[in-house]
Amino acid sequence: MLIRIIAILFPLFAIVAVGFVVGRRARPDLSHANKLNMDVFVPALVFAALASKPFRPENDIPLLLATLVIVVGSGLAAWALARATGIQPKTLVPPMMFNNCGNLGLPLAVLAFGEDALAPSVVMFMASNLLHFSFGAWLLDHNVRLMTIWKVPSVLATFAGLAVGMSGVVVWEPLLQSIRMLGEISIPLMLFGLGVRMSDSRITSIKLGVAGAVARPLIGMAIAAALLAVMDFPPQQQALLLIFGALPPAVLNYIFAERYHQEPEKVASMVLIGNMAAVFFLPIALAFVLP
After folding, report:
1. What is the pTM of this model?
2. What is the distance between the alpha carbons of residues 228 and 213, in angstroms, rounded to a whole number?
3. Distances (CA, A) of 165 to 161, 162, 251, 264
4. What are the two backbone dihedrals, phi and then psi, of residue 249, each rounded to the nearest 5 degrees?
5. Distance of CA 114 to the CA centre of its chain
6. pLDDT tens for residues 131-149?
């Protein structure tokens, strides 16, 4: 089992490590590459995953709702923790709510459970992302215009992919394969970019960073386990929900904190230490879900 877990996780952390080393030595400017990834490659991945499978409400809607329960439940627990400890809720709540379901979650699902796990993982990724770009942004700035979320390419790709899947329209296979190939660029680029971003981050609040790194997966896995105890999901979705709960804070939390001037140094500490702590928490989650 240990060898199997290492084999699943090694490609993820190896690519992140390469990005970290390159980031330390060359300090590349990935701003254009990251923009291309978010505007072209990730939308292609999302559309191809959703359009290539029929939409099944009996499977996809319960998974969508369970994902939202984990995200919102994590936020409520973090709010209570922030009030009890005197931490600014706007600093603690977003990193606890919004996890790294893109950079780590998507490739981990494919490596652990095969290509069939990509579509449900994309559903979970987009549910979290939609909430992050809407409620997450509003949480940091109540004056933010929520209607701008409809201009996000990955959001448009989500609705386009769902429309194709629900209508039963069959996309011409060579076209779908072209879109799928574009989407395949996104995952290694996200992992590499995560490593570069981590190399440029600074840990200024070790105590808060460690607390956030531990609280995020423990809260998420506890809520996921509670959901699985009262709701019936297929085995693959059960595994994906528990792994979703164990994921570390998303890098996007730091970007949002920097944009809205919400103690970005503290958020960066939680994101950086949290993603390093994933080396410990993800094997625990995998040990529970692998047959």
Report:
1. 0.87
2. 23
3. 6, 5, 30, 39
4. -60, 145
5. 18
6. 988 889 889 888 877 666 7
